[in-house]
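User: I've been going back and forth on whether these two constructs are worth ordering. Before I decide, could you fold them both?

Assistant: Sure. I'll take them in the order you sent them. The first construct and its structure tokens:
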Amino acid sequence: MKLWNKFLEQLQLTPGDSAPLAKERLRLALTYDRNGLEQGTVESLRREIVELMAQHLDIDASDVHVDIDESVGPNKLVASIALRPPRRAKVPVAMAGRTAESV
């Protein structure tokens, strides 16, 4: 057992760290099976959503989550997309403080 723990330490894992990962993998497998989806469908949808949304909005592609909500009623595909704050146009120093009428 000490050898196994040493191996996990080298991977920077503890023996209990694999349980949440295994649980999430099982949840995904069951979700795909219940909805008749092929493996990788949600990941493919996520990539396509990111590409499409990035054409129209400034989004943080690393903070896009797509999941299937099975909590109530019919299953729903849920996408959570983090929007970046809008960039403010830089006003030239010479124009700062002037009103529209004075320009």
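The second construct, handled the same way:
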Amino acid sequence: MSRAGRPTQTTPEQWVQGALDEIEAGGVGALAVESVSRRLGVSKGGFYHHFHNRRALLRAALELWEEQFVVGLAKRFDAIADPRERLHALLYHASVELEPTVIVRLMAANADPDVADALARAADGRLGLLARIFRELGLSRATAAHRAVLAYSAYLGLAELRTQTPRALSTPARVRSYLRDVEATLLHDV
């Protein structure tokens, strides 16, 4: 710590987490070296020890988002042996536990090629996870792929709805009811 109470050095991981936090708070357009340095309580000079420019920081933040919210969650849910329980846990997490602000911010910035690539990889991974669940529940490959799209569309729609109309599912009872309806739709013939 410096005499001013600030960290004397910041790690690349701190900069990347700070960048992801900045994206969550204000979107990809709000990501700047200055805003992340303020968030970390350090001068921006240390940034250049770890990254060449803002683009490099954005790419690293996107990698962290994918690792935490795509790969990490896939591992967590793949560990649940029963596919019906796995689907319920995944839907519950997406509907109740998760505040999906980062993906909404990223979808708003999908004109950026790095953001678009990250979103495409995330969609592929998430659709693959969902399709595997539906295949394990006995659905054909085509039907499982279709149900995966339905489930992922429900998640993305809910994420967007929560930013535009937070009152729509403002109580735990409404969220649970929504979740029951989504599950019933997805599993109606299983």
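Notes on the second construct follow. The chain has a mean pLDDT of 91. The two ends are 59 Å apart (CA to CA).
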